[in-house]
Write a structure and sequence with these properties.
heterodimer, A: about 675 residues, N-terminal domain of TfIIb, Rossmann fold, Dimethylsulfoxide Reductase, domain 2, 7-stranded mixed β-sheet, about 30% helix, about 20% strand, B: about 325 residues, alpha/beta, 4-stranded antiparallel β-sheet, NADH dehydrogenase activity (chain A), Formate dehydrogenase alpha subunit (chain A), Prok_molybdopt-oxidoreductase (chain A), molybdopterin cofactor binding (chain A)
Chain lengths: ~675, ~325
Amino acid sequence: MTATLTTCPYCGTGCNFYLLSDDDGRLTGVEPAGQHPTTRGQLCVKGWNAHAFVDHPDRLAVPQIRRDGELQSADWQQALDLVHDQLQAIAEKHGPDSLMFLSSAKVSNEENYLLQKLARAGYGTNNIDHCARLCHSSTVTGLVETLGSGAMTNSLSCFDETELVFVIGSNTTEQHPLIGSRILQAKQRGAKLLVADSRKIRLAKHADLHLRQQNGSDVALLSGMMRQILRDGLEDRDFIAQRCENFAAFAEKLESYTPEYVAGITGLEPEQVIAAARLYAEADRAMIVYAMGITQHSHGVDNVRAISNLALLTGNLGKPGSGVNPLRGQNNVQGACDMGALPDVYSGYQNVADPEARKKFSTAWGCELPETKGLMSTHAIEAAATGEVRGMLILGENPMLSDANQGMVKKALERLDFLAVIDIFPTETAAFADVVLPASCYAEKDGSFTSTERRVQLGRKAAEPPGLARTDWQIICELLQRCGLKSDYQNPAEIMAEIAALTPSYGGISHDRLQGHGLQWPCPDKTHPGTPILHIDRCTRGKARFSPVDYRAPHELPDRDFPFLLNTGRSYFHWHTGSMTRRSHLLDREERFAFVEINPDDASQLAIFARQQVRISSLRGSITCRALVSEKVPAGQVFIPFHFTEGAANALTNNALDPESGIPEFKVCAVRIEPC
Amino acid sequence: MLKSLKREDLLRLLETLAEQYDLQVPLKLPDGTRQLGRYGSGELSLCGPLLQRKPTSLLFPQAELLLSINPDGSVEQPHPAEKPLALFGLERSDLAAIAFLDRFFLCEPADDIYQGKRENSLLIGLTGFAGENSAYLPPAGENCDLELIATADGWLGCAYSAAGKTLLAPFPDSEAKERTEIDQRAAEPKTDSLLKAASRLLREDKVPDAFWQEIADRCILCTGCNLVCPTCSCFCVQDRIRDGKTERSRVWDSCQLDAFMREASGHNPLGTEALRTRRRIHHKLVADVERWGEIGCIACGRCDRTCPTGIGMFAVVEEMINQFG
């Protein structure tokens, strides 16, 4: 039995485990790392099963080219030549910005870095993005404005020191289980727990106060709490005076958010708003934890601003056991952002519109670089649907299931002149591709990944890839070489050396230094020990900024024809579009069917019984799935996870976008339910 | 008869074992923990804390190919191992767990896959002052072929089987004639009395349903408690078709999963988290006692260590005794 230490491929917590393999090289199991600071010998159910999909027979093992309407086996040379020739031809004929590159929060930092380099330096476009657009783009936009950095401000170890955890829009025990468990441990040792979530999540059972505000009413709730904090004189005046700016304009904006007004919007009692304000503000050290319940709204950035305002108002920043803690959903969504797989920044959030930054990268890469910022992925899909984007390269993403309004995504993918997909399984998106390139999965390659607490850690190769599959970085290097760019990297460590040279926050990071437990960025030089807590004496932007916001209703609310509010998200046992977990025996067995959570009162009124097949329809589409009758959802709301192709939640969701972050409103749209 | 071994002798013994067996020894892993791995494939770590991966996983792995069915219907078995297994460096709880699994898998009809690994295999205990920071580990007893007992200045060897006696034959006799001379601390561990007290509470039906609901509310369904448990033996069967060939494997299962007992209709006799949590504890402390005459927990502490929310066996047992004892 061989044991290879690596980093978990699922959520952003960053657990480490050993992949165990037998003499034939077959993976036989997982063992959590006993001494790792996040893992501590513990894993969630997906971690314990992270070996299970790796050698699934469905793995893509040979390159494929579409011929006569069907994907057929090809050799690497043919397939790579075709990808390059097609992308180059489209760029020449229609301009580089008619191309779009989708990178992946599942692949390594090195691979994300190379793909954004390929898009920018190889094909001359800043049209590169990845699924952070769908999860934490609101966070990056909001927190960069208020604090100067979009990252989680504190570390996971801070849960051991906090007096109160305020969880809003995060089903932490299911989506970041090893963080959820730390919250439960904090509660056990006496910390307070405040939960704001319309669903009765596990943490709610342990909360000192559980607020079930209407989906989409968070700005009103948070503003009401902040107004009350000021009324009670519970704000941190020294912190506000010394560390913040724009307080007066912000405070003025709160005036109208009386408990009664807020109660009317949120569906809460006025007393609950007051109690929540006091509970949070009376703690000396309080952590705010949030995730998609905050970000995935047409006003997601405003939600984030309100969260940031609340932390600043009470001085909960730059000290242990406090902070604004957005939990990253994917194993490397933080890293993909850090590496510049975004349309407006190079690695380390260096702006493409900044001539100095452009010159730096242009000199390093030896080519001219485009000046204008590129398309967000959500806008790019819209542009593909209208024919403005014509060629696309998608690395390890599955927008057919993950993006809002599947009907439009389908139209977009069908309309493309050329689509290349690099992936490990034949996904719903790969079915539209002209070329499909087989990639190595996490267990079959070396590379670094950055967790939600900014911890850069190594993933290590434990098994051989299937058939002819190659690592993503090797595939991208082949395209870099065809573009006449440097492509002779011998290994990911060499790529990291280039990243460190160009990226101040990663300046001191090398694969040698990442042995052990990794490093938390910023890590600007080779002797720097890393940074567990951000914004200690000053914020990244200097003074923290209060950002006044007003409540705006969601884009589409229930009405007579579509009387239910649809909430979407993930379940505990499956991961995103299910390509890995639905091919992991125990996880698949646990949840085998697409389902909709419906409140018993609603089910009774509609004469729907448990496990019955029902039809759910919105303005955009219609699906069928099984009814899961549960008090977890409030009456009037239904919840559908987006893992299942046969009951795709995103056939229903609304692609109304936040005007600043471009994130779709996954958490609110209107649907109708009928028994089948 | 006890034998006396110096460190060089012990290393010589390992060399001899490696010639005849697929020798698995405690190795130091990069994060500082230890687990069994093939001799020579990593840094030997004879003494130290409990092995991270349960050693029983070498006899009953997390995922294991059972057979393949070819498109023509013929069946292939996995190729047998070239050498029998020798597991070196087991402490008392590890050996108790293997004895527990032996009884389960080898009772008629015997599990032939397990039997194939266990037959001709060799178990070597490592006890005495061999724990973390030279902590004392109680004697292994006769659940092994031979036991090596760390003393202040070397090792004492004690053979229990013919194979063990042959292996120890080349080494000189020790001055200590009886192992009781070094077993002064072999009193019953405190853990055993806690488990017995909890078992009694359950058998006397003194633990109400509300207790299980409260524990279950804290469970995040990681299944780790089952997966790290050396006496858990539940598995499910997974079939995968690759190029027309069906690969049948078995995979560790967990009674904490809803689908563990769920029927095809969707009905589940263990349909709530509270019932499943109760089962986890009840099975070890009551069902095993009724079936085998002894508690099914060998008190290794792995489930308490791996539980993210502090509801492993001993945490639950202590709460139970505090509330109802």
